[in-house]
Amino acid sequence: MQVRSSVLLGLFSLALAPVGSAQTAYPRPPGANSTPAAQQSSPATAAQTPQDSATAPAASPQVVPATDAPAVKALPATVTKEKKGKKKEEYTGPSNIETLPASPMVDASGKAQLDPDGKPLMNPPVKQQRDKKGHPLFDDKGKPVFQTASELGYDEHGKKLHAEKVKPPKMVPVHVTRGTFTVDGITGKAALNYDIPDLKYLYFFVPGTGIVIVSNTPFPAAKEYKDAFNDKQLDVMVGEHKLELASDTTMLGRKPESAFVKIDRDYSLPSRFPVVGYGTLRVQPYAWPGAKPNDALKDGIDAPPLPKNLQPTLAVQPCPKGTVRAVAVPARSGETAAIPPCVLPTAVKSVNGLGSTK
Fold it and tell me: CA-to-CA distance for 276 and 245, rounded, in angstroms?
């Protein structure tokens, strides 16, 4: 029955449709994927009369999907697998870094080094090294391993530490050969020989005036004298007195340079004659190394020896291992004390044979 009723409804609708409304079906040309909205309605809807359309229910429009857009392929779901890493070993050792306190700087002979103001020079604190994992480093005996100049270890993140390259300071060598020191034209010292690897300060002691400190660089409370260093001589004025140091060879350079001078009137030496020296301090106590002995003249005759009051104080060479310097005899006024010889510690004698045996 249902089949018969559907067939009768189809025939009835064909009978009501006008003859001219029949459309010839043509094949759709390729590429024509979309049809106008007017053609998307069914033939039954297009054949309805105005009277029928007023009474008939509105047909729902048929939606034709567009086929021009390219098809989008669904991407397969990606499965992320976590990498299985090695289990980190938990560190249970000490985490504090030990630090050695600052220590005084000493020279080759074990003597403490001082800065120009007389204060001890200190080495920076030394820290304990770290290993590649940033932990404190210990040796096989459990003692901390401290940093050295060539080995700094690692930082807390395990990064290798490297020592910074520090440019060495520029050296200022000064050479005085058979020099003569005069005060107002009067010879105070002669036959001076100084081989200074790095000039800091020259010392000129003048009785009744004090010590005159001379440098080629500025320093506190110093007065500048233009072109004081001039080839083979150094000329400075101290009050009304002219001090001059002359050499057989160029001292600082052929080009004239300024000198910076300061007077310490509170310093005195037990000498009635001028004294010349050099050192690294600009305050008391002054380092006072002696001069070198004169070399023999070549192709000439040696002059007679200088008076004792004009002879420079020679530098004292260290005694051989296992010996000590004998007790020196005080020099007479205006004379230079003789250098005592090196003897065994069990028999310390003075230069003139007098003295006690220890």
Answer: 9
Region for residue 23 given its phi and psi (left: phi exceeds 0; alpha: psi -120 to 50; beta: otherwise): beta
pLDDT digit of tens for each residue in the chain (358 aa)?
Answer: 555 555 555 555 555 555 444 444 444 555 545 444 444 444 444 444 444 444 444 555 555 555 555 555 554 555 455 555 556 678 888 888 999 999 999 887 778 888 888 889 999 999 999 999 899 999 999 899 999 988 999 998 889 999 888 888 888 999 899 899 999 888 888 888 888 889 999 999 888 888 999 999 999 999 999 999 999 999 998 888 899 999 999 988 889 999 999 999 988 887 788 888 898 899 888 877 665 665 554 444 444 555 555 666 666 667 777 787 777 666 555 455 667 778 877 755 444 444 443 3
* Domain positions in the chain: 174-279, 318-358
Q: Contact 274/244 with Cβ under 8 angstroms?
A: no
| Residue 344 φ/ψ, nearest 5 degrees | -70, 150
Q: What are the C-alpha distances in Å from 156 to residues 123, 136, 145, 151? A: 24, 9, 15, 16
Q: Which residues pair with 236 in a beta bridge?
A: 243
- Show the tokens assigned to 24: 């010839």
> 188: closest CA among 313, 292, 56, 21?
313
d(CA 224, CA 262): 9
Rounded to 10 degrees, what is the CA torsion of 64, 70, 73, 75? -120
In which residue are the tokens 């010839």 written? 24
- Count of alpha carbons within 13 Å of 19, Cβ hemisphere only? 0
Structure-token pair, residue 227: 């072109």
CA distance 216 to 225: 10
